[in-house]
Amino acid sequence: MTSPIPVTIDDIRAAHDRIRANIVRTPTFISKTLSDLTGATVYLKFENLQFTAAYKERGALNTLLLLDDEARSKGVIAASAGNHAQGLAYHANRLGIPSTIVMPTNTPTVKVVQTEGHGATVILEGDTFDAAYAHARELEAERGYTFVHPFDDPRIVAGAGTVAIEMLEDVPTIDTFITPIGGGGLISGMAVVAKAADHPVHVIGVEAELFPSMYNRIKGTQYPCGGDTLAEGIAVKEPGGITSAIVRELVDDILLVSERNLEHAVSLLLQIEKSVVEGAGAAGLAALLDHPERFAGHTVGVVLCGGNIDTRLLANVLLRDLARSGRLARLRIKLQDQPGALFNVARIFHEQRINIIEVYHQRVFTSLPAKGLITDIECEARDRDHLDRLIAALKAADYEVHPVELA
């Protein structure tokens, strides 16, 4: 780098002293089950237990506390439809600082209501984040607000880095951080702390395959950036300039994770740790599960950076994961349209102790002859082997059967 890193370990320690009384000192717990699964010693930092369920409070509060009296009286503004909006609004309200949040017009109502509930004035502007961002900067200039960037600000980076301060205080033996990357604020702060530690600590970033923006910038690739990712909290098309410089200098590598692995990680955290984590928050675990050989034998710290996930989406993720594991399935079975046909099939399900959840008959929209019948049966098994035994029994009884696979 041609210029010094704009955030130092002393900045992060000072930020921690500044904010520690008003944020949750979230626990860092070992996960024996995940350690057994991966071959690493896995510690999880539960930042989803912050009041607004995300680490973003740390940088927002640090920035607010550094404002002078004039800036506080005029108020702050941000462009965000996610965790940054809620973290900033919550702490601004608590400190008596007016806050304005500009969101795209298509922001889900629940996010608007939650942000307003923290005392912010919400302005809906534009169909995209870029449009909302541009409008926020216009209002900043017109009204004298202080713009609080979600990631590309040394004060935000310093606040985010306090996550790593706490992790190394609680577990000094951690030798690897696996950290999600969106704009790069969290990993930048954590990397500064890691490289100032009294022993080597590797820093591995994680992005969703659909949004490899920091990966492209650091590695010189040109992978497409866009799509409907579960990890919307790290779905950033352009990482920050400050954060990119820090990542280039201090981060050891960046890994990409698929949507399927993100879904699996969200599901595992709920099943194993009984903890609700959003897609972005589960990205670190997704990378660990996808590359166990890389981290085997290491003491790994994974930040569960947020827990704000829509309940309907969470339910869908859990059901899809059950389907991929063989515990839920939809089997497409070809029958003859005659009395007793379904009864005979159901008897095989009974013999194999497989529970039938739903039955769908299809007589009209099928390529079979008029007397043919397609039946989809949704069922519940103990595991993949149990399901395979059912399919084998159906085929042994001369039924044509095919599982309906997920993407």
From TrEMBL:
GO terms assigned for molecular function: L-serine ammonia-lyase activity; threonine deaminase activity
Database matches in InterPro entries: ACT_dom, ACT_ThrD-II-like, Ser/Thr_Dehydratase, Thr_deHydtase_catblc, TrpB-like_PALP, TrpB-like_PALP_sf
Domain of life, per lineage: Bacteria
GO biological-process terms attached to the record: isoleucine biosynthetic process; L-serine catabolic process; L-threonine catabolic process
Catalytic activity, EC: 4.3.1.19
Sequence ranges assigned to domain ACT in this UniProt record: 330-407
This protein's UniProt keywords: Lyase, Pyridoxal phosphate
Cofactor requirements of the protein: pyridoxal 5'-phosphate
One Pfam entry name: PALP
Catalysis performed (reactions): L-serine = pyruvate + NH4(+)
Membership in a protein family: Belongs to the serine/threonine dehydratase family.
Protein name (Swiss-Prot/TrEMBL): Threonine ammonia-lyase
Biological source species: Sphingomonas panacisoli
